[in-house]
Amino acid sequence: MTTAEREAVHRTAARAALGVPGVVALQPALAERLALAASRVVEAVGAGAAIAPVGAGVRCEIAPDGVWHLEVRCILDEDHRVVDVARRVRSDVGAAVDTCLVQHDAAPPLTVRVVVSVTRTIRPAACETA
Amino acid sequence: MALDEPPPASDDESMTSGAVPAGTPLPAEAELLAGAERLPCGRPLGRAWQQARDAGRAPDPHSSHCPHCRGAIEGLTALDRATRALRGEEQPDGHRLATRIINAVRTEVRLGPMLFLDDPDHDLRIAESAAAKVLRRAADTVPGIRAASCRIIASESGDATHVVTITVAATLDRPLRGRAEALRGAVLHSAEHVLGLAVTAVNVEINAVLDLSPVPSDDRFELRDR
Amino acid sequence: MHNRMGTSPQPAVGVPPHRALPPLRGVDNVGVAQDTAGSLDDGLLAVRAAEGDEDAFAVLVRRHSSRMLALAQHLLGSRTDAEDAVQDAFLSAWRRLPEFQHTASFGTWMYRIVTNRCLSTLRRRTRPLPLDTIPDPATDPDRSPPHVAEIDAATAALTAALQKLSPELRVCWVLRELHGLHYEEIAHVTGSREQTVRGRLFRARRALTEAMRPWR
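^ Those are the sequences you sent over. The predicted structure of the assembly is below.
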């Protein structure tokens, strides 16, 4: 997988996940969080995750059998049933990445497996504001 | 470095007043000596202060006449007055700082174990910490119950079912048995309808008495209240 | 807001600091689900926070930050250093909560962490305090009644004298006189024996009464 492909997949997956009702933000990985913290933006804007760079919170690799494995880490709104939102994230991300790979003429087989990890649920109203 | 370990021995003995000769001995002895430091009239300073603090009791004949004792008492009184004023000053407003701390904490969530949500494909997961927060909140809705620990353990069968062990504080004004059942019901309902997590059993432990008298709005005394 | 310091500390007589099964506090009302955290006892919140509940920890931070900031400011004499010390202390507490043994209250534990943070800041500090962080008794002349001005000046003098005490004496005096901790709590917070605490308090008072001589 080329770097461009990987980046496109990341962006596509993140956008698709964030488009699902009930998904508030994606949970950035440790390295991304550290970069954010270092930028001190976190302090100014609030609950950091919401302003993570596009694609943060998505992990992606191709298994030897050619299957694309994606993990999307989400922070959900408490008002939605968690498993329902997670299912929708799985299907929306899967479909969006399929389409993306077709557009990039990626080599077949184009099997995509999406794992959704819910890291937190929050009450949007309860978000700390500065 | 272990943060709550005592700091290494310091050199504060060298900062003592002239009453304790430098290089004298063990801290404990040095401190006893400090308390026994004598005023020019021969009375220990600590005793003169003690008299000053024994409000209501008339001063003994010596200290009401002795200028050294009176001086010592006045000194302590002046300090007490300034201390009261300092204590009465506004506490700094920690709100902005608290917000900064909370945001920093939220960027470093401890993920911990992940649990499978109730879905046949086993690729939807939730952090135990996130699920526990929801189940604790369900427990809190049961009258006279407040949740403490909540652990959710995957069954060994590997079928994505779970056993919840929840520890709660309860008031003693109602039969515990009925409330344990209500608690199980609330947790199971929340697991299914709020999370979508398969829970086969809820173990309830009541390990503290819940006092529902209102928390004092000013909580700075809680340290002493407990 | 309830942001004044405590009144006169009460003596420790007959108050066991940690009961085996302390009654926990809460407020029962309708619709508790949304708001219980704010009414929960520190002990319950600490258990929840130890299991990764950052909402519970947020309540603890809100509840204790002003008091910890006051402590750090009295120990360090600088608002900026105090904020850094308190933030570091809370982040460290968050990471270490899973190991917190609940043998002391959360509040006492925080006192301990903040105090040790401040002591290491003081040990690292090579530069003297910037002048503007030590209040000058001669300034702030605008409060009209003369005795108020005099009390202010005496308070400022005390604050300045406090900064001249050795850190160990200052810690004991501030915890006792400004935060109302008992000897045994101070011993726990500073990791020393009660006898040592008593001795340090005596020496701190002695040095401070000297500094307050002009205000007798």
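The two ends of chain A are 42 Å apart (CA to CA). Chain A touches chain B through 30 residues (CB under 8 Å).

Shout if you want it in another format.
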